[in-house]
Design a protein that fits this description.
Elements (H helix, E strand, L loop, with lengths): L4 E10 L2 E11 L4 E5 L6 H8 L7 E6 L2 E2 L5 H6 L2 E4 L11 H10 L5 H5 L8 H10 L15 H13 L5 E5 L7 H16 L8 E5 L3 H7 L2 E6 L2 E6 L1 H5 L2 H8 L2
Parallel strand pairs: 3-8, 3-9, 6-7, 7-8
Antiparallel strand pairs: 1-2, 1-4, 4-5, 9-10
Helix pairs in contact: 3-5, 3-6
Length: about 250
């Protein structure tokens, strides 16, 4: 079976600093794959490479068996990569529902067909399905900028799923979120992974510092230290790995 995402020998240096030094891993269809590591371990550089925001010095990134190493964010999005960022990307002056519609409009045919499409570009039903799945129906017509940070985070995540992606890259989905909401985000992501209301099952790659969240959510976890892969395994395998405990999690 072809992996949804395959990263082989990825390297990126900034001057004398080797931010990522030959990282390789695969993400299978329907898998939730976590990436953890201390600050400076290379997680952000790896993520930005997979998002097309930077071009690696060496190595290959494949999406569904096709080389996408040099593609930019827009083309990757068109090819089935959804993404969220640690910093919110919502449009504060637009309604929640319109945020979701705008997030998917670039996938709707040609520019001409979008100009003559209905006001919601035939995306209203899809947006409504996600609004219900994210339990934000009560704020659907409010301006996104008027919502709490946690609610805006949910909108931001929902926007990533409007294009029915094969792969979703989630950068710190719990960052800045009230601890009482973290469990709800984990439950929601599991539901999106197993029982999506729109599209098919997506694979996820999650970078997150909240260890309880990662251990509960992810099927497998990769630990990075100083630009290298220290370990890849299930949550129970990572918890039991003495090298990981000594280097990062703490015994």
């Amino acid at each position: 079976m072809t992996a949804v995402l395959k990263v082989t020998g990825l390297k990126k240096a900034y001057g004398a600093i080797q931010a990522v030094g030959g990282v390789s891993f695969e993400v299978q269809a329907g898998e939730i794959f976590g990436v953890i590591g201390p600050n400076g371990s290379g997680k952000t550089t790896l993520f930005n490479s997979m998002l097309g925001q930077i071009t690696p010095d060496a190595g290959k990134i494949e999406l569904n068996g096709k080389d996408v190493t040099t593609l930019g964010p827009r083309e990757l999005n068109r090819r089935g990569v959804g993404r969220t960022f640690q910093t919110l990307q919502v449009f504060g002056k637009m309604s929640v529902r319109d945020n979701l519609i705008v997030a998917a409009q670039e996938h709707q045919g040609t520019m001409l067909s979008r100009i003559f499409a209905p006001g919601d570009s035939n995306l209203g039903a899809k947006a409504d399905a996600l609004i219900d799945q994210f339990h934000i129906r009560h704020v659907a017509h409010k301006k996104a900028g008027e919502l709490s940070y946690g609610q805006q985070k949910l909108v931001d995540i929902a926007m990533a799923f409007m294009s029915e992606p094969d792969l979703v890259l989630l950068d710190e989905p719990c960052a800045g979120v009230n601890p009482s909401l973290v469990g709800g985000i984990s439950t929601l992501l599991k539901e999106l992974n197993q029982n999506p209301k729109i599209g098919k099952k997506s694979s996820f790659v999650v970078i997150e510092h909240n260890m309880d969240f990662v251990m509960d959510l992810c099927h497998r976890i990769m630990v990075m230290v100083e630009g290298q892969v220290m370990a890849i395994g299930t949550p129970s395998e990572i918890r039991a790995n003495k090298q990981v405990l000594d280097a990062y999690l703490g015994s």
